[in-house]
Amino acid sequence: MRCTRFALLAFAVAAAGACARPRAGNAPDPEPAFPRPREVPAEAWTHATAAYQRAMLRGAASGSLLTVIDYTLPSTTRRLWVVDLGTSQVLMHEYVAHGAGSGGTWATGFSNRYGSKRSSVGTFVTGNTYVGVRGLSRRLKGLEPGINDRAQQRGIVIHGTPGVSAAKARLGRMGRTEGCPAVPRESARKLIQLLEEGSVVFIWYPDRALLETSEFVDRSAVSGER
Predict the structure, then answer these.
(1) How would you list the strands of the sheet with 200-204, edge to edge?
(2) How far is it, in rounded angstroms, from Cα 73 to Cα 4?
(3) In this prediction, what percent of the chain has a pLDDT beyond 70?
(4) In 3D, which of 97, 94, 72 has the Cα closest to residue 82?
(5) Distance between CA atoms of 149 and 112, rounded to whole angstroms?
(6) Which of 115, 199, 200, 203 is in Cβ range 3.0-4.6 Å of 126 for a Cys bridge?
(7) Helices 42-57 and 2-19 sit at what angle, rounded to 10 degrees?
(8) What DSSP state is assigned to residue 77?
(9) pLDDT tens, 136-166?
(10) In a 3-state reduction of DSSP, which class is residue 32?
(11) Which of 145, 101, 147 is nearest to 122 (CA)?
């Protein structure tokens, strides 16, 4: 059944790409193909699904799962969603940290630079897992040159941390990281095992560099965000 759903999903992605209207100087915008879960913010969803379709059409990603992180929301809210695009089901909705250099409760600055301790935005795909000093972790590969393509060199991974939890959110004291999208330690293993290698992770913030240079975001929506 899962293989059948994924085959139908791949057909929908291919059809959306084929029906997209060309735009001068940019990749065409895929037509909307995925209903938005009510709890996922519309702006983040628009760009995340466009990024998913482009990553799939380029052969850079696989699977029906899409992880959306919305850094326009404060760290004290659950701002990570894992959605199965084949069923429109939200599989996880969790807290997620941002880098210490990106801001306090609100993330406002982002970087692709090693040592910045800032989060990166844009389109990623998941890599392999390993067990390190923070326990089970999953590597991320950034697909966007100049925006997040140094993620692997920077050691940007999904991992668990005691600094992120519902209790800390209630106190308004959510922990931060060196740039990793870290989640509560008690849910990290479930998330990391759920996201198989090649899954799309899209981190949203209307960062100027992302809006101006990304080949993955929805270009038709960008003009209204500048």
Answers:
(1) 89-94, 80-84, 65-70, 200-204, 122-132, 135-142, 157-161, 183-184
(2) 35
(3) 84
(4) 94
(5) 7
(6) 199
(7) 90
(8) S
(9) 999 999 999 999 999 999 999 999 999 999 9
(10) coil
(11) 147
**Structure-block tokens of residue 48:** 């995340």
Cα separation, 96 vs 174, in Å, equals: 9
Does the predicted TM-score (pTM) go above 0.85? Answer: yes
Owning domain of residue 137: 2-222
Measured between alpha carbons, how far is 169 from 99 in angstroms, rounded to an integer? 16
Contact 122, 202 (CB under 8 A): yes
Question: How far apart, in whole angstroms, are the C-alpha atoms of residue 84 and residue 16?
Answer: 18
Residue identified by tokens 């931060």 is 176
Domain containing residue 31: CATH number: 2.40.440.10
- Total domains in the chain come to 1
